[in-house]
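Below is how a single chain appears once it has passed through the pipeline. First comes the sequence as given, then the structure the pipeline wrote out for it. We keep one example in the README because the format questions we get most often are answered faster by looking than by reading.
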Amino acid sequence: MVTAVRTGTPLRAVARQFGVSRPTVRRWVARAADARLDRVDWSNEPPIPHRIHRTPAEIEGRVLALRRDLRETSALGEYGARAIHREWPVARWGPPPAVRTLGRILDRRGALDGQRRIRRPAPPRGWYLPPVASGRADCDCFDVIDGLVLQGGPAVQVLTGLALHAGLPDAWPTTGVTTTRVLTALRARWRAAGVPAFAQFDNDTCFQGPHQFPDVVGRVTRFCLQAGCVPVFTPVKDPSFQAALENFNGRWQVKVWHRFHHASLRALQRRSAAYITAARQRGGARTADAPARRPLPARWEFNPGLAPGGRLIYLRRTNDQGALSLLGHLFPVDRHWVHRLVRVEVTLPGGPLRFFGLRRRTPESQPLLREAHYELPERRRALRAWH
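Resulting structure:
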């Protein structure tokens, strides 16, 4: 190889001729330098020391004995490498090994109490909804980005949407996300892409409705029920269920909000629409492989005065008594299921409440914990009771 390079053959050609990489050719050419080939040291020994200095077995035994003694008698309860190094002179055994050496001895002899973190695989998308987890149905998630202010202009809120399986990102920048604007966005999205089996929201009042009264079923919930979609409300103060959408929210802010200067809300809306179009084109394969969505009838119209009927789902966490708050009432679930996740399926107007236990570690196991009777009171009668 060196002779070929010295005769002017390119490194790439030499590497191809001898079946090695170019860095290998360079290494041997550098080792030869300008010397005669018969005077070059061509030995190729591995870069490891000829002698390995290992702590004698007698010292390792003393380390383990001192650790055992400290574990049983130390007032501080410390018996790690640093504690052994600190207490070594008291035993009068001569200079102590270094702290790192002591740590390696303990590790080699299996004398470390620390346990390595076990990383378990993440649960499937929508693991808390069995049809979504199995890929038989899709779920649209919705959220609001706030805290954005245009330079010299108004504050901006962004209603965002994302399907767990199909992708289909959406973003609607506006001066304020209200229930009316949420309904307009849902109608436009579902007319274009179809109605999913589930629609997931957090507990913002623009989604769920006012919180000061019990038995409130907001307009967004009624809209979903009339469209044939099951509304799902995530646990209070637990953003992990919106992780996929939060990830998209971060990308939108980086790629749209922070990337450009927006002179007006209209300019921001144009930039956002261009980004959404490009993002949907890139995720076309994911959308094609997603579960089918039901088309929204052309003449379908939302009737907010119609009594709600159908199924809705609340994801909640029990308190220290195994109970949870729902629809303004406290429901006991299971005194052994404390501070744990529960999926509550509500059938309106007069169906039962079904409480299912949820575990991220075993998402396929969702036992039925309890059933309770619940009947949604008439709207006028409930308002008279509170006024």
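Residues 380-387 have pLDDT under 50 and may be disordered.

See the next section for the split statistics.
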